[in-house]
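Box 3.1 A note on notation
Throughout this textbook, protein chains are presented in two layers. The first layer is the amino acid sequence; the second is a token string describing backbone geometry. Keep the layers aligned when reading.
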Amino acid sequence: MDLTASEQRFVQYYKGISTITELEEIKLAYGYRVVMREVKKLVIVYSIALLLGIFLELLVLQIGFLIFRQVSYGLHCSSFKSCMVFSSIIFPSLTWFTINTSFSTVTIWILYACALALLCLMGPISSQKTAVRGEAHRRFLRKKMYKRMVSLTVLLVLLPQPIAILLIAGVLMETVLVSLSWLNIKEEF
């Protein structure tokens, strides 16, 4: 594994604190690379959100997305670059659309109920990047998913409607990715 200059500095710093094997060096450098890519992606997406004046709204939408992303998995981009482009376009666009479109309360709850039903039917689902490792793991993830469904539903009843709509939009986004994965759409976008 070829290390960048910053990865080498990070590994050298860590080696100064602790004794590590060559395999641990590689794992450490890879972990650093993954974290830095995620930070870079967050900076880009949230910079766009700041420019559009939708920073907090995007944050709420992504929370709704991540609540189920962690337990239902779904479609992933094939590379970091495509993920960054996809995230930079889709998340701010969906956030902007959600806050600039009026929805009736009935429509919101119907969409949310449909999203939960689809997640119950299809999730969790393996992808090229995250695999469900057997039936015991699937049951574990489903149990967590059901708990999150109940908790989020109670929370949505208590929250003001604009916040609830953004959370539901995030859940819908995850439902689309799970559905595409379930339909065996090739993970090459």
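The CA atoms of residues 41 and 81 lie 9 Å apart. The chain is about 75% helix and 0% strand.
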